[in-house]
Amino acid sequence: MDEAKEKIQKYFDIWTEQLGLRWWDITVHYYRNPSEILDNFISNVDSNTLVPAFVNTYWQYGSAAIYINLPEFVGMEEEHIEKIVVHELCHVLINEMREGKLHHEERVATILQKAFMWVREYARDEGMEAVK
Fold this sequence. Notes:
Elements: H1 2-18, E1 25-31, H2 34-40, E2 53-58, E3 63-69, H3 70-73, H4 78-94, H5 103-125
Parallel strand pairs: 1-3
Antiparallel strand pairs: 2-3
Helix pairs in contact: 1-4, 4-5
């Protein structure tokens, strides 16, 4: 699990800078204990599914707590780990606009995650040094 944790942290380090979130106070909490995972990571959509991560954002104070279901990341491909990390960081960016249920915020976080990663790939393909 330590290897998965290192990969996750690597992407948090990269993307908090690239998304302009360095001024935020973001803490990452890793869960390994099965009973704590069952208590905290049940999906809001399907009670038979565990989510790999979630975030509580306190935009009024510029802080966020990100919770990681570490066993879900063991053996996961790095590209997928990166997508999850970027998705959770997108919640930090947009949480202030939440109205009602989480559904719209989830969609916007997913769209932004894809857009940010597409822009990075485009910039790499074009040889732009700043994003490598």
